[in-house]
Specification:
Length: 331
């Protein structure tokens, strides 16, 4: 090929590349949350945006219903299918109810993963847990038991009654109770639906029904704030310890005022970041989600899928007077 011809071919090739790059559409990844207006999910979305920036070819659609119900999430999923997104990463309000809509999405070539709160295996390609389920179950009881040397009555204030993650943690907690925490007496489990007003009412109800209650364990960032506020307002600081899973930025004031001795959580920013990373690699790099597969989660590391195509990230951190200030600045 003559020099001139080579130059022309190269120029044409570069122009074509330029055109492709200019018109190539970004990968649309929908981060579907249980409900909007929850600080935990807003923090996860920060991580999602960070992953999108790092990956370079991603647009995040942060969405979810106003109320944490499966029916409302099904509508959200159907509208994402109509918008032809490339991937859906969902924290589900119900393990089974979402399956038909998510199957429809997968049939149309959309990558589907669940994170935080899972979907049954037939409704997603993989599920990312923030941490080991049994470890979280034991942690939430230990958080109460550590401050109750004499034992006593405790109650759980959960999110919605169909939330996959809370139900799995509560089941794991109940399993370790008799043997590891024989002096802790779980008197009730109630559901605040990750709604502030409902969680407040449920916390009030617990205090009324169980006057000897020593701790409220709320494995939800929404419920734990509501319960701590009720304990504060009713002058019960020192009598009832509120604990569970809390976002340090929202909860610091209740460690400061003594309504709570300690709480725990994982890093929600890393969780959202990792979910987007996985969804991207399945959708774009055509990574296969199968048992035993090890997949990258960027700066956070790697995860290996178990036989249900689920993986777990790191152990939760404990927050108390010694460190909540520092963490409250991050999430
Ligand atoms: C709430 C939600 C979420 C859960 C956290 C701990 O924000 O229920 O699913 O992971 O609490």
């Amino acid at each position: 090929m003559s020099f001139l011809k080579k130059l022309m071919v190269t120029a044409a090739f570069s122009a074509a590349m330029f055109v492709n790059a200019a018109y190539a559409e970004n990968v649309k990844i929908a981060l579907v949350v249980k409900s909007l207006g929850n600080g935990f999910f807003d923090a996860a979305n920060k991580g999602a945006e960070e992953a999108a920036k790092e990956l370079g070819d991603v647009d995040i659609i942060y969405t979810g219903p106003t109320k944490a119900t499966a029916e409302a999430q099904i509508e959200v999923v159907n509208s994402l299918i109509a918008q032809k997104v490339d991937a859906i990463a969902i924290s589900a309000n119900d393990a089974d109810a979402l399956v038909p809509a998510l199957k429809k999405a997968m049939d149309r070539g959309i990558t589907v993963i669940s994170w935080d709160s899972g979907v049954a295996p037939e409704g997603r390609q993989l599920h990312l847990n923030p941490s080991d389920t049994n470890l979280i179950g034991e942690t939430i009881i230990k958080l109460a038991a550590d401050y109750l040397p004499e034992g006593g009555d405790v109650a759980i204030l959960s999110a919605s009654s169909t939330a996959t993650n809370q139900n799995a943690w509560i089941e794991a907690a109940k399993k370790v109770l008799p043997e590891k925490f024989p002096k802790i007496n779980l008197v009730a489990t109630v559901y605040g639906d990750d709604d502030s007003a409902k969680s407040t009412d449920e916390a009030k109800g617990l205090l009324k029904s169980y006057p000897n209650l020593k701790a409220i364990i709320a494995p939800t960032t929404v419920g734990v704030v509501a319960a701590a506020q009720v304990v504060t307002d009713q002058g019960l600081i020192g009598k009832v310890n509120v604990t569970g899973l809390a976002l340090p930025s929202e909860f610091k004031k209740f460690i400061d005022n003594g309504a709570s001795q300690a709480v725990a959580l994982w890093n929600p920013i890393d969780l959202g970041y990792s979910a987007v990373y996985l969804a991207h690699d399945l959708a774009v790099k055509k990574e296969e989600a199968k048992p035993g597969a090890t997949l990258s989660i960027g700066r956070v590391g790697k995860v290996t899928l178990d036989d249900t195509n689920s993986a777990a990230m790191a152990p939760p951190f404990k927050f108390d007077k010694s460190n909540i200030e520092e963490f409250s600045k991050i999430y």
